[in-house]
# Entry
Amino acid sequence: MFPLSGVLMRTSLLSALLVVSSLAAAAPPEAAAAVRETTRLPSQDLDSALQSFVKQRHLQIIYRSDVVKGIKGSTRSIEGYLSAQEVLHQLLSGTGLTFRFLDDKTVMIAPSSKSTTLTAFPTPLRLSQAGSALSTSVESESSSLQEVVVTAQKRSQNVLDVPLSVTALSGDALHRAGIDSILSLSYSVPSLVVQETGGGFQRYFIRGVGNGNSSTSLVGIYLDEADVTTNGNSQLNLRAVDLERVEVLKGPQGTLYGAGSAGGTIRFITRDPDLSKITGMGDIQFYTTRYGAPSQEVTGVLNLPLLTDQLGVRIVGTYANLGGWIDQPAAGTGNINNQDLRDIRIKTAWQPNENLSVKALVDVNRNSGHGTNASADSSYNLQLAVDPTLRTPFRSNYDVYNLTASYALPAVTLLSSSTYLDTLTQAVVGLKYSVAPAPEPLFEFLNAPDTRVTHSFSQEFRVASVRTTPFHWLAGVFYKDLSIHYTTDFLYGYANDPLGGGLSTNNESSKSVSVFADGGYDITPAWELGGGVRYFHDDRTAYNGDELLSGQFHNVAPRVYTSYALTDEIRAYASASDGFRSGGFNPGEIDNPTYAPEKIRSYEIGTKGAFLDHKLTSELAVFFSRYQNMQYFIPTPDGIGMLSNAGTSHIWGVDGSLDWQATPHLLLSFNGNVTRSRVVKLLPGVTAVIEGDPVDFATDYSARVAVTYSWNVTETIPAFAHVEFSRVGPSHNTDRGEGGDPILFTTDVINMLNARVGITRSGWSFELFGDNLANANGIQDAVGAFGFGSRPRPRTLGVEIRAELE
# Structure
């Protein structure tokens, strides 16, 4: 039993008690807020939209007139079979405002408490109701948690209504926590684990699924509507800068997101251009790392409306000189793992009328460095087994181009998304490991360099219903043409006696097409039943310069779910869903050149809720997954190895979160997960693992506690302080091999302590931050079994200065 089990058990019990205790006090599901009616609101300013809405629904809405009228630009047209809550979510999305039902006919709209200040409403307020608009002297303090709208199911929903486990963090929350990459995101999201292996290589895992074997991923990555999922060992390291939000969808997403999302999907949603006004932001950071060199980062955002309310562009640029902290004594060099990072993202939006929307996105990223951050010892000295003087430079580049267009018809909405992706990852590595018994137990491998180039084009067409009845649906077709080219210049030998070397190449291509459909039906206003299916066909080839292999792979991925609103604010759900990863080939291997697709079937039961006038929200999910035809890297007599199906594993666990706005100034957050995995059945001839071994790279548990306190230094100077502690448990790597000593490797437990404090005045903000204050330096990724283990960045202290133009 691990140290956090008691904490998680108590958290689970607390969530259950909160659900039970709220049943008697909460409004019934037939309350006006939850009842769906046909709603039609044309595109108009927010104040007018609210006036139209209250007349249609016979509600009254309390808000401060100057706050609502101060929001420029027009709302999009809203049409469908929607509840009052759903309409308000759409109207207020991106405005910085939130709402709260005072009773079943009265709604209060107020600034959300996400920002740098929490101030009570001054008077006067505006009371909007059918047939009247009155001034009143009501005072109220906005101290509820901001409600989050997500598009995890490819339609806008309150995150509490989505019948699957989703963690969503707004752009402001990301900045407050100092999150600028998927690696730093992983410390804040239960069940998400990121492992850096140096030189631009990183692996993503969700709920124990995401092993780095095979050429394709088990975790899908999306930038807006663009599918940017690539190789499982070298996924894109997207920058979390100027984002609307990040969504992490946990569990198989095969039906809506296809191959490569068997473990889950990570979606980066960028901010759209503001079509009504010029805005901008400048940000500069200076920080220093223990044992290392100083770093500087500069980020700028410029938003330009080119044609008022119709056409605009948003430009985001980052330059970072990231100082290294790893030395290479044998080569007489220090701080070798420096990085020179440049990223520019340009997004344009054209909305000539209320029905048509066209968005174009370009993201160009360049990152290079003089050395790897893997293979360092606890003193941050590079340890290369083959040649300790070996230079280890790297490059990691990508270009993303996406064009998305949507058109709203009276009954359906049409969408087209076209994406082109280019990546280049190049790194130098060296390792030594055991493949044979004495007297020659060591096999050495050196490459200089290893190059991976990816080209991908994808196209999705989608049609979704405009909801005017209890039934909603969407359907689509998805095509992807993916090619991956590997080139390795290598040397190898036994017992320090080089036997040979050469140039190894491998070219893989995949032309896949999928058709999918998904929908749901409201059996009652509280009870929804739904499901979907995706058919996948993949024409795949592999060529090593000598032998060409080809074949076809197929898969059908269904999902079913049911969701029930116990009250207006508490929902329970259950689901069963499939995820999958395509098969492939081993050119040059005689006995078993083909490996079959993987399949994961997962069952999940969960509950989500908001309590205490939305001051407290919780989420709890229990899951069980059957992981079939695992693609494992197994040794071969030549010591190189190949990919093969190993058998079946079971993965099960629990994850949850709790956010409590304890006072108007104090926000407390907790999340965590527990995951267990076991190999339960092996195919004949598999010796790399045995039954009972854990699944490679699966992390046993993680937990995070965060405290954010906001206050006003003066009436015009708001301030905040944020402290968070996260703990990531051990993961494993098992390779029992053929002869020699088996590898049974367990990573270290990583404890991370981060803090940030800042003030804001007249559009300027000043922040001090510290990351890894406890200076954790254990091995954090399971490829440490082969000498590649990376360690967290040592204690880092810095200052950030930001200016915003409104």
Observations:
- The helical segments are 5-25, 46-57, 65-69, 84-92, 171-176, 182-186, 254-257.
- The mean pLDDT is 82.
- The chain has three domains: 31-149, 162-266, 267-506+525-805.
